[in-house]
Structures are given as structure tokens and as C-alpha cells.
Amino acid sequence: MLKLYFFISLLCLVKSDTDETCPSFTRLSFHSAVVGTGLNVKLMLYTRRNQTCAQVINSTFLGNLNVTKKTTFIIHGFRPTGSPPVWMEDLVQGLLYVEDMNVVVVDWNRGATTVIYNHASSKTRKVATILKEFIAKMLVQGASFDDIYMIGVSLGAHIAGFVGKMYKGQLGRITGLDPAGPLYNGRPPEDRLDPGDAQFVDVIHSDIDALGYKEPLGNIDFYPNGGLDQPGCPKTILGGMRYFKCDHQRSVYLYLSSLRENCSITAYPCDSYRDYRNGKCVNCGIAQKESCPLLGYYADNWKEYLKQKDPPMTKAFFDTAEKEPYCIYHYFVDIIAWNKNVRRGSITIKLKDKAGNITESKINHEPAVFQKYHQVSLLARFNQDLDKVATVSLVFSTGSVIGPKYKLRILRMKLRSLAHPERPELCRYDLVLMENIETVFQPILCPELLM
């Protein structure tokens, strides 16, 4: 029986595009990219009833699509080599895991596969027209605009925007994953994704200095690590193809992390990445019951709040780890110095729990200024969240290679968790940090403030 199942699975893998038994995403060769491909859009439906074997549908045949449920369209972008997106299967399965919905993969690989980017971009409006016709059929059958969700990657984000414009912003939601920048930067709203293209538009910008779009395009625009170089991605061309696409693709993998239970990435509305790094925006900037916005699938939790703003838009910043699931845990390190003279420098803080787990944060994006009896609040970012901290270590550095070594005299250090504000705050008093020398100590519970 096991052998029979394995044989049937193999058959599914080798079926051609025209075989309805178990259709798969169009796979083309680099030769196809060189000679170019004419546009052909294939819509593949996945549901919890057919999670791994798609059903091909179109505007005259909705198949097993249940119009009473949410329908999420996944629209890929430019495919310069003709290969299927490596993340597509994970995204389909992740969406079906979090909610019982229809997932429609918009396969326009025949059209997106070309070495000439302009040729792929020129086909985006035609793809949008085909999707508009399909959605029109859904609406006739009883679907609601509120239940239509489009996730567009790179060029796919602008395709989603074009569909939204055709329906005058009535679609329920559009998520843009690093919307394409080349040919779109600086274009007017009618020629790109725009906040008015759906009832709610959220965007993740992960490569604003190269392949992605720099300026805000949604109701909420997320900028991981400032939207520039992503941790874990190659910094030079020696990284090969990953150097060119890693930052751009990171938006997809960050979205995927929101579909899993082990990581919820919190973002902080802020005017700039610098202000966020300097700890000026970690309370969301508002007095409200809602928590700070979450990246990815649950970003629409902020939809109603943003509607109250004029305009209903905000930028949000956060940092990530190098590897999946990318979560970073934020703490404030409050330091009151008692040096007679001003000290400028960076702080490295290391936490260790009783089990021996260690996590470290280097707060060195810009020099902190320590003045006598003034509290400096530094935003520390850790890859691990240690529940019970046993020891803390601090290193002070001015960054000077030559010259005198300085001391930083600390009247009080306080450590407080932003992710878990209910946890007790940890303190230490009367410390003297010798420059570039690690000072290890056991923290104590901070005294509660008298009411």
C-alpha cells in the first residue's frame, strides 16, 4: 500500500501543465527566459480539502472554490530564470494552516519569465485584467469584497494594486511584499500600488536601495532593519545570486514567520529607523488598548485604528535576527552615570540564565552620551528571550583604538523587557566599567516605586 501511495505521488510530480490530475506551477528553462515567453495566466486553487494537489480554475469554472470563505490570491513577480518560486508551497500551506480559506496561486510564469525586466513589467496590467474578470465571476456567485485578499510579491504587488483600482478600492486587503522599485519608483498612484487600492493595504519593504520600492505604499508600511541590508544576507557580490535576491526575498520569509506559532514580530510606528533604534517609539506613540502592530498576516489588527488617522497611514520599524523565525526581543537598558565629565560610547550587554543560555546585544549604531545624574535609555535587541536572567555583563567602549582608556561610572543600571512588561525589572547599583573590559554581575530586583 505504501509503495502504491509513493507511485501515485511520483505521478503527480511529473504531470504536465495540461494534466488536471495534479497540476503544478509552470517550470520553464533559462532558454525560455532568453527567448522570452508570451503571457499565459494559470489559476491554481488550494483548500484544506486539496492542500497539496491544486485544481486549475478560471473565470468560467470556479471548481471547488467556496465563495462564502476568504479567498487569498498569491501573485509572484519577475522570474528571470523561469524556475518556480521556492517559497510558494510554504506560503500556501501556511495560509491554509492559520485559516480555512481558498488559496489561489496566480501562475503567470509564462510572461514573467524573461531576462528583460521591462518585458515582464509590461504584462502586469494584462494579468490584473484577467484577475479582475475572475473576481467578477466570484462576486456574481455571491462572494464578498471583504473576503478578497491579495498577496503580491515584487511586481505582483503592483498587479494587486491594479486589480484594486479596477474595483475602486473595495477589495478587502492587499499585502505588498517588497513591491518592485525599478520602473515604479516615483510613479503616480495610478501606475503602482497605493493605499487606496483596498480597504487595508500593508507593505513590507526589505530592499529599498535596490529591487524594492522606497516610499510608503500602504496604510501601514513595515521597514525591517530600516528596509536596507537584511541580517544574514551576503554583503558583497561574492555571495553569488543570493547577493542580488536575498534582501528582496526576505519580505516573503518574514511574512511566512507570521503564519507560525513560534514567532510574532512586533513593529513600532515611528518617523524614522534612527528614532526607533534610539528607543523613541517603543510605546507605539499612542495611548490605546491595542498592542503595537504585528508584521504579516495579522497586520490588519491595526486596520480600525489607522482609519481614525488623517491620512490613515503610518510607517513601522523593527529589527530581525539573521535566521528563521527572525524574532528579536527588545529590552530597555536604563543607565544613570555619575562621571564628572561627559562620556560618549557604546554598550554591549550580555544576559545569561541558570541553564547557561547566553544572548548578547551590541548597542553601537551611534554613540550614547552619558552625563552625570542623567538617565540614558538604550534599546537592546536580543536573539533569545531568557525568562529568568541569572547574570548580566556590560562592556563600555569609546571605539578608540589608540589613546587613553576611559571609565564609565554607573550609579544605577535597570533592565526592563518590552516584550513582557509584566516581568520584574532588574537593577544593579554602583558599577565602574573599565573600557573594553567585561564586567559581570548578578542583578537584583528593582525596588517598587512608592505610590
UniProtKB/TrEMBL annotation:
Per the record, the domain of life is Eukaryota
Q: Does the keyword Transport apply?
A: no
Q: Does the keyword Cell cycle apply?
A: no
Domain (Lipase) ranges: 37-326
Residue numbers annotated as active site: S154 (nucleophile), D178 (charge relay system), H248 (charge relay system)
The entry's localization annotation reads: Cell membrane; Secreted
Q: Which reaction does it catalyse?
A: 1-hexadecanoyl-2-(9Z-octadecenoyl)-sn-glycero-3-phosphate + H2O = 2-(9Z-octadecenoyl)-sn-glycero-3-phosphate + hexadecanoate + H(+)
Residues bound to Ca(2+) are R192, D194, D197
The residues the entry assigns to the signal sequence are 1-18
Topology relative to the lipid bilayer, per the entry, is: Peripheral membrane protein
- Please give the Pfam families that the UniProt record associates with this protein: Lipase
Annotated Gene Ontology cellular component terms: extracellular space; plasma membrane
User: Which keywords belong to this entry?
Assistant: Calcium, Cell membrane, Disulfide bond, Glycoprotein, Hydrolase, Lipid degradation, Lipid metabolism, Membrane, Metal-binding, Secreted, Signal
Tell me the Gene3D superfamilies matching this sequence.
alpha/beta hydrolase
Q: What is its main location?
A: membrane
GO biological process terms, semicolon-separated: lipid catabolic process; phosphatidic acid biosynthetic process
Can you provide one Gene Ontology molecular function annotated for this UniProt record?
Answer: heparin binding
What role is this protein assigned? Hydrolyzes specifically phosphatidic acid (PA) to produce 2-acyl lysophosphatidic acid (LPA; a potent bioactive lipid mediator) and fatty acid. Does not hydrolyze other phospholipids, like phosphatidylserine (PS), phosphatidylcholine (PC) and phosphatidylethanolamine (PE) or triacylglycerol (TG).
User: What family, per the record?
Assistant: Belongs to the AB hydrolase superfamily. Lipase family.
The protein in question is named: Lipase domain-containing protein
